[in-house]
Amino acid sequence: xxxxxxxxxxxxxxxxxxxxxxxxxxxxxxxxxxxxxxxxxxxxxxxxxxxxxxxxxxxxxxxxxxxxxxxxxxxxxxxxxxxxxxxxxxxxxxxxxxxxxxxxxxxxxxxxxxxxxxxxxxxxxxxxxxxxxxxxxxxxxxxxxxxxxxxxxxxxxxxxxxxxxxxx
Length: 168
Description:
The chain is an alpha/beta fold. It has helices at residues 2-6, 26-29, 42-55, 81-90, 110-127, 147-153, 161-165; strands at 16-17, 35-39, 59-64, 94-100, 134-143, 157-159. Helices cover 38% and strands 20% of the residues.
């Protein structure tokens, strides 16, 4: 990302960071990306906030939810979501703009509907609560193979890189 950004590859377009953000990479992302889509821990909330304050900015983020409770995936477990949102609401330099999830992969997309529906309900429930620095604007879920189901369940942000660029 840094090399392409230095070459002006992203000029005029909002830049989103997707994928697992390692704590040692926070300084390279905060203030460079318009939205960090994968804040998956309390430690990341604190580090992003601290870096944003040092830059004099407010960094927009999505909280990643491990909706499938998969041990190999990062993200906050659904029952700990209120806890991380409370922390984010008290952390200067950070603004939560929504939630993000990547449900388990199934052969048939109808199994994903359960996870998409569960995420949408979390999104709605949080929207009705009052947290400082938290505004549920975006629900990012669904990728090239499941975006239709995700949109039907309420997603307003999808990831369709494979459909555009092909498999890696």
